[in-house]
C-alpha cells in the first residue's frame, strides 16, 4: 500500500508540470567559493495544472484594523496588523475564535513599533512567534499561549545600529539568524544573536549588478524572508521582479526561480541625502512575488504580475499562487477569486489562508490540497 501511494505521489508531481528538460536551467558557483546558484526559468505555458479556489471569510473585522500578514503555526493563525494598538493577533485556526493580542506599540522595554510582514518562527520554540522591528532593530519573542496576557515581548535582541544591516531576519536551525542585507553584497547573510556576521551566501554576479551600486541592487531585490518549519530552507520573494530564491543552508545551495514574466523592470538611481536609492516607476513595473510560504513538500509563491493602478495598496493585490516543488520546478498554478496581500498554508488540513485586500479587513480561507481535482 505504501509503495502504491508513493508511486501515485510521484505521478502527480510529474503530471503537474512538463518534463523538466523543457525548463531553462543554469548552474554556477558563487564568488564566495562554496554556494551553488541554480537558476530555473519558467513561463505559463509550462504550467499544465491550473485550479480555481474560492475564498471563505473568517469575519475578523472586529479585531483587525489593517492586517498585513498571516502565519499558520498549529493550532494558531498569527496576524500582523499595521494600524492597531496591538500589532499581533492570535486566532485559533480550528474554531476561528480570537485568542489574544500581542505586541504593545512603543519604544519602551519589550515593546515594538511595527510587525508588518516580519513575523517568523523558531523550530526550537514552537509555542512562540518572533517579530523583527527594523525601526528599532529589535528581534522580539512572544508567547502564543493564553498565559501571557500583557502583550509584551518575553525576550528581545537589540542589534547595534551600523553593525547589523539586515532588513529581514529569521531563525536558522542552528540558533543563528538568517537575514537579507541592505548592502547587496550577498543574497543571504548569517548572524549570531549579537548581530555579528558569520557567513554570506551567494552573490548577484550579473551584468546589471556591475552597472549599479550594491545598495541599490539590494533595494531592487527587496522582498520578504520565510523559512520552513525546520528553519533549514529559506525563501526570499522579490517584490519588483518575478523571482524567488530558495536557500538550503545545509547544502549551501540557492535555487533561483525566475518567471513567469521574466521582464526586466525599468529603474534609475537617485541620490537622496547623500545615499544611492532605487528610483522605480511602479506604474511601469510589473510587480512580482508579494509573499511566499515554505511548506513541508512545496513552496507557494503569491504572485501579482500587475502594474500599479494608482491605489496606495495596489502593488500588493494578488490573485495567483504558483506552487513549486523543493527542486524549484513549478507544478501548479492557483487562481483565487479574491485579491489578497499575504499567504500561509496549512498543508496537513488542506487550507490556504490569505489577508484579504478588500475594503473590509479580514482573513480568508481557501480549501486546497495538492493533487485534488
Considering the chains and any ligands shown, give keywords for the structure.
373 residues; mainly beta; Neuraminidase; eight-stranded mixed β-sheet; six-stranded mixed β-sheet
Overall description:
This protein has 373 residues and is mainly beta. The protein has a single domain (2-367), classed as TolB, C-terminal domain (Neuraminidase), CATH 2.120.10.30. Helix content is 7%, strand content 45%. It contains three helices and 28 strands. The strands form six sheets. Strands 3, 4, 23, 24, 25, 26, 27 and 28 form an eight-stranded mixed sheet that branches. Strands 1-2-20-19-18-17 form a six-stranded mixed sheet, with no helix packed on it. A four-stranded antiparallel sheet has the order 5-6-7-8, with no helix packed on it. It is globular. Mean pLDDT is 87; it is low at 1-16.
- What percentage of amino acids are in beta strands? 35-45%
CATH class group: Mainly Beta
What is the makeup of the main sheet?
Answer: 8 strands, mixed
The chain-level mean pLDDT equals 87
Structural class: mainly beta
In short:
With 373 residues, this protein is mostly beta strands. It has three helices and 28 strands. Strands 3, 4, 23, 24, 25, 26, 27 and 28 form an eight-stranded mixed sheet that branches. Strands 1-2-20-19-18-17 form a six-stranded mixed sheet, with no helix packed on it. A four-stranded antiparallel sheet has the order 5-6-7-8, with no helix packed on it.
